[in-house]
BTB domain-containing protein (Nasonia vitripennis), 249 residues
Amino acid sequence: MYNTQNDAEAMWGFYDFVDTSFVSNRENGLLHNSLKLVIECEIKIYASGDKERANQDDCVREEEKTQRLEEFDRYENLLDSSAFSDVSFMVEGKILHAHKCILVKSSPVFSAMFNNEMREKQERMIEMEDIKYSAFVEMLRFIYCGKINLEIDNMELSVGDLLFAADKYDIDGLKDKCEKLMGKNVSNDKVVDILKLADRHNASNLKSKAIKFIVSRSSNVLKIPNFKTLTNIPDLLCEVCLAIAYKKK
């Protein structure tokens, strides 16, 4: 606090920060009617050793995180292992072994499949007819160890196929991962296809991002021939048009 009523009292302070004469000059508008300058600040006080303990706690948490990830990686060894497997899938003519107890914990669809009185409950071999082998493998990898590989046998995996699998088997974590991966590739040429895919598979975050992209670049995107394909999906086209109209208000 600076008190300009008494010059002697006004001589204290940190002069490297501000000159007293600058503060006391009414034209600068820093003083209240009481001729006092009130400075508000936030002060944090750390007891001796707190910072060191905080660093140690961070190291412990990081070590625990690493250990947990290593434990998850060990589950990857169970992927497509016939050891203790109690169910197998036939996908595009190839067989994949799995474990029901692991599948039902990640997917309510698998849980219903194995709990209901269905043919799949009785048979150890289940034929999957509407999903690609590469996508099914990566879906299982995510279920077993929480990660995916974008390349299998030197063949790039379509994230769109994986999003389809995540939606079909109701695996939210995998769907979220797919949405984020596809969201990084939104462009003028791809945005319409990404929007339709997001709408088809209930990927709300990705859909919202695609619509925002179209709105922000509507003058360019509306000229792309692919945009006309939205006329086959009237509800989706209506959403886009409303978003553009609202933006122009």
